[in-house]
Write a structure and sequence with these properties.
By secondary structure, the protein is mostly helical. The chain contains twelve helices and no strands. The N terminus is likely disordered.
């Protein structure tokens, strides 16, 4: 009966969600959620590029496949909201329309920062309250403190685990095999 109530999903979505339900961190799961078609994306990704992600967190975040791989890893840890918040803040800072600024700020706050938000990020009370206060008169910098805390958390906690993960090691291995 429950199956009758569930909407039909496309095969691609089932594949992507299926890999997450097993909490796997292998490269085969990563390829299902690359921004381009997996085979084309892996052909474009050089071993040097993937290896450079280990140089610094900034290098990883500056590469679209690095972000995709890191997102896939965070999904296996059920903490992708941190990256999604950071990316939302980066996109928010590009807002040029004063009319859109307040509504975008409130949307980000309600989705990620507010207590019991659907994708609540792990920040301390003082940061959450300072950000709440910033919502009274939103500006392009209203999330800077919260974004900095989340970035620091990812860099110190999730990023080192990502570099040791089977997903990253498999990705390096696959790109090296393509070259030989």
């Amino acid at each position: 009966m429950a199956a009758l109530l569930m909407p039909r999903r496309s095969k691609g979505v089932r594949t992507r969600l299926g890999c997450l339900s097993h909490k796997s961190d292998s490269c085969s799961d990563f390829t299902a959620i690359l921004p381009d078609k997996p085979s084309r994306a892996l052909k474009r990704l050089s071993t040097e590029e993937a290896a450079r992600w280990a140089d610094s967190f900034d290098v990883l975040l500056a590469h679209k496949y690095g972000v995709a791989a890191f997102r896939a890893f965070l999904k296996t840890e059920f903490s992708e909201e941190n990256l999604e918040f950071w990316l939302a803040c980066e996109d928010f800072k590009k807002t040029r329309s004063a009319a859109k600024l307040a509504s975008r700020a409130h949307r980000i706050f309600e989705e990620f920062v507010d207590v019991q938000a659907p994708r609540e990020v792990n920040i301390d009370f003082q940061t959450r309250e300072a950000t709440r206060k910033n919502m009274q008169d939103p500006s392009l910098t209203c999330f800077d403190q919260a974004q900095g805390k989340v970035r620091s958390l990812m860099e110190k906690d999730s990023y080192p685990r990502f570099l040791r993960s089977q997903l990253y090691l498999d990705l390096l291995s696959q790109s090296q095999r393509r070259l030989s």
